[in-house]
Amino acid sequence: MSEYSAKTKMAGALPLGIRTHSQRVCSLYKRALRNIEAFYDRRDVYRYQAVLLRDRFDNNAKIQDMRKAAQLLKEGEEELFLQQHPIPKKFAESPGGVAYEREVDPPDWVLDYWHPLEKAQYPEYFKRREQRKKEFIAMWEKQYGKHEEKPHH
Known about the structure:
The chain is mostly helical. The chain is built from six helices and no strands.
């Protein structure tokens, strides 16, 4: 996986700042729905349970006291933890899924090891690539100085 794709994939999972109460409630609701989905494979049974869950959340949405709301959120997260499915459903390409990171993005240096006959099939691309490598090396040397070989003892 290239460094760029690793950073873009990680960006979605990083906690960026403090989550508000409403964000935490929405997250709890979604996780609870996914938990119900793991328990019930029949659509009609799942929908019934989902409607009951939504009713619980809607009834608690009317609470104005933030201390009580925060306490309910804490209890809800604890209840979800205690009732979580032992083998939760995972999307195939999500972390933990069967196809997660199945397709590997080869790093850029792999192209340096192509055979000249393979490179000859894409002459414009490799000409531009070599030019950009020279520009990158020049930029690196300008910023950090030339690489010095240390003598071996």
